[in-house]
Amino acid sequence: MSPTPNTSDSKATPHLRVEVLRDTLKIIIPSFLAIALFVSSLFFSIIPASRDNLMEQKKSEISHLIQTGWAILNHHHELVNTGIVSIEKAQQMAIDQLRNIRYGPESKDYFWLNDTKPTMIMHPYRLDLEGKDISDYQDTNGKRLFLDVVDIAKKQGEGYVPYTWQLNDNPENISAKLSIVKMFEPWGWVIGTGLYLEDVEREIKAVLKKIVSISIGILLVISLLIFFTVQDGIQEKRKRFHAEETLKDYQDHLESLVESRTQELSSALSKVKQLSGFLPICASCKKIRDDEGYWNQIESYIRTHSEAEFSHSICPDCANTLYPDFNLYQNSKKEKKS
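RE: above sequence
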């Protein structure tokens, strides 16, 4: 009778769960550590670096713009040097040209001019300040920004100044601003332009949103790969575990059969051994004496002490002695010869 392998989960579940959990943790822990490292790098390295890079990019843009504005002043100064126009005319032409220049996403960013006193020479959105002393002008934080403008322009020739200012043409909206200023020595003027940090922050957020969206997509893909890898591992583990259990059941069954057959052989051998050795047998009637001292017919003794059975017959000698007229064995021999 073939064995019935026990592959039920009730038997395999405790051990299987431990193995599956161990293998799953071997996959999940390194994966989540990698994800945690990626997220940490994203928020503590990639995003700050992207923010800094974008700010440097914006600063580079206004640096190029200030060179353009400075070149306009220098162009009109050359007109004076060549005698084409007077200095007053050249200065007015430069002021008019710079006043009308706009750039940026909404074409509202601009240039302004002040001298080193400082006096406001030109500002397209603050006409009320033109021609006035702006030494004591303060931003919303109490900073005398134009004194800093002049100081940086004189000492460095070119540099950046942070402060707060109205958002382009909207005097009601005060925003943080970073401007670059450059000295124009021939006229003692300072030209400046800048960027609003609110606009930069908006662009940074847009870029960061893309980075975060892409990162989330990557994390989802990684998570799905981990999930399917774990699921495949669990299925393979179940199949292997059940195959091992089936093999073990067959092995146990075979061992049981071997043990059963061994016991049967041992029993048979023990019975055979009972007939070995010296048996007291009567020289006349052929009865055998057992261990208790009783005499038994030989067939009865052998039947009791072994698994042998007897069928009665008669040998030739007895047949001739008991039935001389029948010649049983001679007739049997003739039949075989014929």
